[in-house]
Amino acid sequence: xxxxxxxxEKISENALHGDSLLAKTCTLLIDLGExxxxxxxxxxxxxxxxxxERQEIYVSPPNDSSNKFRWEKGLYHRRQGMSSSxxxxxxxxxxxxxxxxxxxxxxxxxxxxxxxxxxPVNAPSYQLGEKMVSVCxxxxxxxxxxxxxxxxxxRNHTDVLLRIQSPVLESWLEKTRDDxxxxxxx
Length: 186
Description:
Structural class: mainly alpha
């Protein structure tokens, strides 16, 4: 696995084991077989952040009565805290960049997609994974598509990748031909 692939796995695990409402929603949608809704919600959430900016986002802690960005609680994977040396409690101020927020949204998609595609080919969950790939491939977000294509190669799902019919995939393959040729030929 590449460093990016492993970091997506770590990011999704942190969100899934944290208090992320988005991660919990994704798990529920998978349980219901609603892969299209999962992809749409994660990509919609990601679209709220400009990943080219380094702006940090303050996410209010649970005891903050303002409820500002409460839906984001626990979504992100990096927290900066200040702890007092005289007490065991710490004041946590969750700060993340827009890029980290987008990466977390993508990581949740990739986590569930990989779980589905790692099933036996004739299993209903694998077929649900193929449906999820179709929904993902229909995205207009080129940054997401680039990460999706790379993720499929990294997770050894080149057979699934090569079944995608998309001009974006064709140009991506042409652009990354030298980097991915060995992996595609396996």
